[in-house]
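Sequence dictates fold. Below is an illustrative record:

_____
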Amino acid sequence: MNNNNNNHNHCQYADDDCESVGTLFKLRAPALMLGLLLGIGISFVTSNFEEVLMKNVQLAFFLPFVVYVADAIGTQTEAIYSRDLKTGKAKFSNYLHKEFILGILFGLIFGLVSGAVTLLWLRNELLSLTVAIASFVAIATAPIVALLVAHAFQSANKDPAAGTGPIATVIQDVLSVVIFGLVANMIML
C-alpha cells in the first residue's frame, strides 16, 4: 500500500501511467468543455467577416492555414514549457523573452513564404499581402498566448499539460481568425 501511495503522490500531473481513466477524465474535461464552447464561438467570430469573404472567396483558402500554423507553433511552446515546468527547470522570464523572439522569427519566415506562394499561385497582390501580414501577426502572437496560458495554469496550481492545450488553442484560434479578418478588411475592402 505504501508503494501505491508513493506512486500516486509522485504523479502530480495528468499522467496515464499513474492515474485512472476517471481521474484523467476529471483533470482534462473542464478545459476541453470550455474549449468546446469557445470553439463554437469561432463560427460567430468568422461570420463577422462575411463581407470580405464574399468579396474574395480565395481568402477562405488561407484561413485554415493561418489558424493551423499559429496553433502548431503555440502547441510546441506549451508542450516544451509544460514539460520543463514538471522538471522544475522552467524560468518564465527566459521563456517569455525567447518565445517572443521565436514568434517574430517564425512569423517573418511563414509570412514571407505564404505571401510569396499566394502571389505565385493566384497572382493577386492584395491577397498575397493579406496572407503574409495575417500569417506574421497570428504566428508572432502564438508562442506568447501558449506561454501565458500555461503559466496561468501553473500559477493556479493546475496541471498545465492537461489544461493549456485546449484553452490556448481556442484562444489562439479566435485570435487568428480575428487577425485574419481584420487584416483582410483593411486590405481587401
Notes: The chain has seven helices and no strands.
